[in-house]
Amino acid sequence: MTSKKWVPYLLLAPGALWLALFFLTPMFNLGATSLYDPSGSLETGYVMNGHVGNYVDALSEYWPQFLRSFTFAAIATVLALIIAYPLAYAIALKSGQWKNILLILVIAPFFTSFLLRTLAWTAILGDNSSFVHFLQNIHILPEGGRILATPFAVVMGLTYNFLPFMTLPLFTSLEKVDPRLIEAAGDLYSKPFNGFHRVVLPLSMPGVVAGTLLTFIPASGDYINAQLLGGIKDTTMIGNVIDRAFLERGAYPTAAALSFLLMAAIVILVASYVKRAGTDELV
Amino acid sequence: MDQIGGDLRLVSLRKEFGDFVAVDNIDILIPKGSFFALLGPSGCGKTTTLRMVAGLELPTAGQILIGDHDIASLKPYNRPVNTVFQSYALFPHLDIYENVAFGLRRRGVKDVATQVEAMLSLVELDAFARRKPSQLSGGQQQRVALARALINRPEVLLLDEPLGALDLKLRRQMQLELKRIQTEVGITFVHVTHDQEEAMTMADTIAVMNQGKVEQLGSPMDLYENPKTTFVANFLGQSNLLTGEVMDRGDFVGVKVWGNHIKIPASRVATTNAKVWVGVRPEKIYISAESNHAHDHLGNQLIGTVLERSYIGVSTQFIVEIPGFLDDEKIMVFEQNVDASEVKAGDRVRISWDPSHTFALDAKQDAYAGDVLAEAE
User: Fold this and answer.
1) Each residue's pLDDT tens digit, B294-345
2) Tens-place pLDDT, residues A210-229
3) pTM higher than 0.80, yes or no?
4) Which residues in chain B have Cβ-Cβ distances shorter than 8 Å to A203?
5) On chain B, which terminus has fewer CB atoms closer than 10 Å, C or N?
6) Contact, A218 vs A165, CB < 8 A?
7) Could you say which architecture CATH assigns to the domain B237-376?
8) Which of A178, A187, A199 shows the shortest C-beta gap to B76?
9) How far is A147 from chain B (nearest CA, A)?
10) Of A42, A249, A181, which Cα lies nearest the Cα of B89?
11) Is there a contact between A188 and B106 if contact means CB atoms under 8 Å apart?
12) Beta-carbon separation of B91 and A180 below 8 A
C-alpha cells in the first residue's frame, strides 16, 4: 500500500516542526548575532559585518572561565559516578522488594524545583550551619574558614544536582545484567571483585557512558550552582559569564560567540570521549 | 585445590529456605568418572542440590565430599567443580574464544591458546572462535557453555537442565553428543533434569528425587523395570496400578486383585504389607481375543472389554475395562504394530503378562504420585 508511505513523515512532523521553530531558528539568530559589530547596542541597533573577532576576543578574555567550567564539570561527573555506581548497583542487584521504593527516592528530588534545592544548599553550607561548625570543630576547616562561596561548594552543588542523571542510566544497564553471569564468573574461579571487574563493569559501560554524558554536558553549561553557592572569584563558570553578558551588560555579540564556543567545545569533548569509550560496540 | 579428587559423596545433605525444606538429608555416592542424573519434577530439590555442590547455596547441614575433602564450606571459586548453567549464562561481551578461556585466565594460566583450540575442536566450534554468543544458535551456545566449563578439567562437572532450551530433535542429538564427550574426557558428570528420557539416555545411574528426598537410586533399567515407589512407577514411563491383597508368600507372592489371582516374584514385592498396588507396564501386556489362548503360558491373565483403541504409529494403545475393577483401574495396553491383533473397541479380550514383569508396592502410597498428567489436573 503506497498510501502508507507518508506515515513516518507524519510521525516526525510535530518533533521536526518544534525543533525548527524553537531550536534551529534561535540557533540561526544566535549565529548571526555572534558576527555583529560589537560596538552597537540594543538601543542603537547592531550592524552585521561578519565580525569574527568576537570569537577571538571572547576566547582570549574568558578562557580561564571555560577551563574552570570543564574542570568543575569533570570533577562533579567523577564524584557523581563514584557515588552513583554503588547506589545503582545496590538498587539493581541487591534491593529485592525495596527496588521500586529506592528508585522513587532517587527521583524524589525532582518533585521540588532545581532552584529551590540549590538554595537549600546555601543553608547547609552557610557560615553558621552545623555542618561548617562540625568541620571547624574537628579542625578540617580552620577557625573562621568558609565552605560557601568556594569552588568546593560549587562542585558539591553540581554533584548533588546531577546525581540522578548519573544514577538512572547506571541502574538501567546494571539491571539488565543477568545475576547468573555473576554466578558463572564465580564458578569460573573469579573472586568477587575480579568477577565484577571482568563481567559486571564491562556490561554496565553503556550506563557509565550515558550517565557521564548526562552529567557532564549540563554541568559544563550550568550557572545556577556557581551563582548561588559560589563567590566573587575563583568560582565563575562560563554560564555565569554568558548570563551576565546577555542580561547585565547587553553585550549580545560577545554572549552569542561565547555560547557557540561552549557548544563547540562540548561537542568536541563528547565526540572524542564517545570514540574512546567505543559505545558503538558496547551499546 | 588440585589434590582434591575422587568420588563425590553427599552425606546427610540438607537445605532449608525458611520453613521450607528443599533438600531433606540426602545421601548419595557418585563414583568418579560416572554420568549421574538427578531426576525429578520442578521443586523436588534437584537444582538446590546441584547449587550446593557448585557452592552457589550454603547447605543448612551435611557434608559434600570429593574423595576425603569436605568442600561444603569452600567458595565457588575454590572448588574443583564447574557448572553448565541453565540457558548457559555465556558472557555476552566476550567472544567464544574468551568465554572458553575465562576460567584458565582467572587462574593465571599464561598460554591458553593450545587448550582453548583443543576444547573448541572437541565441541566442533573451531570456526566460531571470534563470534559473540548472540551470533550463535541455541545448540552452539550450549556447546560453548560445555567447553567453557570442561576446559578447567574439574573433578565434577555439573549440568543444570543443559538441554532444556533446545528443540526436540536437537536435544536428542545433544544427548548423544554429551554422552560421547563424557566418555572421552572421563570426568564425573552430574546432570539435573526433569526429562526422564534425557536422564535414561545418558546417565549410568539416576537418583529420582521427590519433595527433597531421594525416592530411588539405580540404573535406568533398574528404575524402570523395578520401581520401588508409586512416584517412580508413574514418573518414569507409565504404569497400571491395581488394588491388591497378598494371599500367600513364597518364591512367588500370590495377590488377589478384585477376585483375580496374580503372581509376582518375591524379589519384586517392595513391601511386607498385605495391602499392595500391583503394577505392570502397559507395553509388557499381550492382548488377544478372549477365545485366543496363545499367551496362557505367561501366567497372569485377566478377561475384559476394550473401551478404546488408538493407533499411535509406533504402537496401538488399548484401554481395557475389567469387570469388578474400580473406575480408575482400567488397564492400559501398548501393542507393537508388528503382528497387530484384530482387536477392536467393544471386543471381549484376554490380556496376559509374565509374573516377572509385575511389581508390588505399598498401598499406603498415593497411586497418582509422580503422574504428570494426573497432577496437572
Assistant:
1) 899 999 999 999 999 999 888 999 999 999 999 889 999 999 888 767 888 9
2) 999 999 999 999 999 999 99
3) yes
4) 92-93
5) C
6) yes
7) Beta Barrel (2.40)
8) A187
9) 44
10) A181
11) yes
12) no
